[in-house]
Write a sequence for this structure.
């Protein structure tokens, strides 16, 4: 067994069985090992940002890391944007990055780069293997690092760099010798201190495993008893939602709207969430979005077992019942097509147990419409780097092959990583993509006008405009083997959605807004 | 004038007038400044790797840096792969990267990242502006860093990070106060020592400005007098070629082929080039590709004036004439379509003064066919990160609007950065793209078999295969506003090439191999 095979077998021994790959020559021994180990599944992506986003989506849904398989610093570089989102999501992920043989590196061949330096801004753990015999232990350590539930600002991303000679010489497969670290429980004293303070002017800001079914149900019990309010942050990694669950609102995007939402909040309880801050700085807005005079109370961090803390708080105050949303399905929408009617069509037609992957403002509007009507897992853009909705959908679909996945994408964001469509077709993934085709970077025009400019000049407008030429998403999807159609009215959209749901595999709807 | 406008005006004052932009909210003041300064042209790209590759292509053709305009660490991250190629090309380039306001950074908003750390592996100069008044000086320094002709392993890439508040507060425009550093002349003693050593068993390995018209003509004079051989490295950034120039061969790719080519070489003279090394390590091949017993003689580095050194050597040894290739145009090819016949069609039909941008093995084969027949500038992949051929073509077309640009791309490589097509359509660039559609990562299958594997297993083959589903490049081009057609025979290809040349603007030919 060579080092490459020891790597793949050790991953499998630790429960890591899915890889999103865009290999090059320095990864050929790893490809050969993948060929030999049938328990390990490698899905080819035609751009590395699809690999990293898909691994994020897989990890969010399965709770276990997927790996990327990328080619030196340049390949890893293409993965950085979605690794940034992944670190903000706190998803466990393992990068396996091939590198030149150790003896070859000093020759500075054209593709040579400082892979560790490229990995640094998006990794909580980095190691370069130094011997082929050590690769098995190195990757075992990588799995524990990814599953470490540690409070690292770079999340749970482990990057293992594998020089080719460490892959081709003899290796040693490793078994899992210790369990992964569990989420730390919250101190009883914290729970006993927080519980009696919760009242009708309290907001519980939920993130991490507070947004699982168990966490949300417990939060719902607390809300029913105390009349407190429940919110997710603006960009939660994963929220469970549906008619059987209590209602959890989502904080809005712009700072003045967050402050308005929290205007009557005198106690902000952070349950796996951070203090809300403005996404960008504005000259007339504060950075911290805690209202004046509001107390901030920390229950626990994202990597801790804050769901358990909610259960203990609920039990402690005798909060036994929650009110489920129990909403009915709306009718399919009619008339003008817009973000609201698209959400309504999804609320009317989406199967229960759907997964919704969103990296667009238009898609985000569907949360409020859908959450009372359809049981689903909501996967949100976390780090603000658009272009992760499609890739995350790829990973979620591979993690949960029995569930329907919706990817709700802006046209600008989808263009960064449109290669996800090819992998969706290759793997026949049950991903129904909706591209909100407004033919502009709409948010930028909004932000531009917020600067106090009354009119957008021609030369500035060209930097927001996607209409010259117009992108034809039906062609871009079909060119990658994904059936697609365009909808220009709500009726056409609902019909297209029904066609999408009737087909086995990927489908794309260009919603012309 | 705010800091943003001081930045744009200072760039113009230093002769930097072209930007490849994918801005976000933190760059809105820079967009506003671009709106105001009509001498500064910003071209929108829908993926940051197109921005960085296009800036590389612009710099290779114009000799002046273009700027990127990118959005924090995530946006810069997407540019890294082609910045890697740019650093290997030694092209002057200025990254302008927006960042959070200085007072906002500590709040660690979702898009916050360590931009300097992301920039480090692909920048020879990095600065974060700290005051709006200082932005003008900062960007003036950036232009001098990019134009520095210095021997930095990270090339001539200057990265200026501009926090939003440094853009929105008052700024000061700066004039150019000193000329850019010129290429250093080679010491006369070196020239006098090298000149008499050149003989029939000598190879002059040319790179940097040795591959300009002046450099190649002087090298041709030396070759005619001494019977030495002339070669470019495997991956030169830019080569001038055509029937009026002497013949310069290109070193092959695989190490055993390079060693075979240099088998009779007893003196290897490096004129702006590095020692040839194997692109990857192989178990049975050396890293350094200098034959045993061959003397290595350094004339100068890439950033030095090695063209002048060649002229001095030629003059010194009384080498007054060179033999031009003076080739005739071949007939258009017939029959089976392949890399050779595509090269032949280009040699038959390409206009003189074309530019050829190449990041594929199939495209690379055109060099030997075209160089004797068509006067052209050849822009090659330099750093081995495929996906730069299309973006480099965009930059070259903007730098040289009167010239026809060919982008000769592999299908695998073109998928990394297919968004270049949209910018080509938006700007109506005269780019004729040829996608070598063999529906696989062919080089990987070759490399896999080189490991001594006789048969590629099904699971490995799926990681090289692009045929399930087949990419439809005609659809992918039309979806972005670029007219396109498919060719399956040499006759169809020549017809398509004539259609492409007859049309004003971009055109794509999918060459089905």
């Amino acid at each position: 067994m060579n080092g490459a095979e020891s790597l793949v077998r050790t991953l499998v021994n630790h429960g890591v069985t899915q890889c999103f790959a865009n290999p090059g020559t320095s990864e050929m021994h790893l490809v050969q090992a993948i060929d030999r180990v049938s328990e390990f599944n490698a899905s080819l992506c035609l751009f590395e940002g699809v690999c990293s986003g898909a691994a994020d989506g897989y990890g969010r849904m399965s709770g276990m890391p997927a790996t990327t398989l990328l080619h030196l610093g340049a390949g890893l570089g293409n993965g950085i944007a979605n690794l940034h989102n992944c670190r903000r999501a706190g998803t466990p992920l393992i990068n396996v990055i091939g590198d030149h043989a150790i003896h070859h590196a000093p020759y500075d061949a054209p593709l040579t780069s400082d892979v560790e330096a490229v990995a640094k801004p998006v990794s909580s753990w980095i190691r370069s293997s130094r011997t082929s015999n050590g690769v098995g232990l190195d990757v075992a350590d990588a799995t524990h690092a990814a599953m470490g539930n540690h409070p690292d600002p770079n999340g749970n991303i482990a990057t293992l760099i594998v020089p080719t000679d460490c892959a081709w010489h003899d290796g040693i497969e490793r078994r899992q010798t210790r369990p992964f670290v569990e989420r730390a429980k919250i101190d009883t004293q914290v729970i006993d201190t927080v519980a009696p303070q919760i009242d009708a002017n309290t907001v519980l800001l939920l993130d991490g495993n507070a947004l699982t079914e168990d966490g949300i149900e417990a939060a719902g019990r607390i809300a029913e008893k105390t009349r407190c309010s429940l919110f997710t942050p603006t960009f939660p990694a994963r929220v469970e939602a549906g008619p059987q669950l209590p209602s959890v609102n989502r904080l809005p995007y712009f700072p003045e709207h967050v402050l308005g939402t929290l205007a009557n909040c005198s106690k902000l309880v952070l349950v796996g969430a951070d203090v809300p801050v403005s996404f960008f700085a504005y000259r007339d807005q504060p950075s911290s979005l805690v209202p004046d005079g509001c107390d901030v109370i920390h229950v626990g961090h994202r990597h801790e077992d804050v769901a358990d803390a909610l259960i203990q708080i609920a039990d402690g105050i005798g909060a036994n019942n929650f009110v489920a949303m129990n909403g009915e399905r709306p009718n399919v929408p009619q008339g003008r097509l817009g973000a609201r009617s698209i959400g309504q069509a999804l609320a009317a037609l989406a199967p229960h147990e759907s997964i919704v992957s969103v990296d667009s403002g238009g898609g985000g509007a569907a949360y409020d419409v859908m959450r009372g009507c359809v049981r689903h897992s909501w996967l949100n853009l976390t780090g603000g780097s658009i272009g992760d909705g499609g890739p995350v959908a790829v990973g979620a679909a591979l993690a949960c092959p029995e569930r329907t996945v919706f990817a709700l994408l802006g046209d600008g964001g989808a263009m960064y990583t449109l290669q996800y469509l090819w992998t969706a077709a290759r793997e026949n993934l049950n991903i129904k993509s909706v591209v909100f085709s407004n033919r502009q970077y709409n948010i930028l025009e909004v932000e531009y006008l917020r600067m106090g400019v009354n009119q957008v000049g021609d030369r500035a407008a060209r930097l927001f405009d996607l209409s010259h030429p117009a992108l034809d998403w039906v062609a871009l999807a079909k060119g990658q083997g994904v059936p697609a159609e365009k909808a220009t009215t709500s009726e056409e959209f609902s019909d297209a959605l029904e066609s999408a749901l009737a087909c086995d595999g990927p489908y794309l709807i260009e919603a012309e807004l």
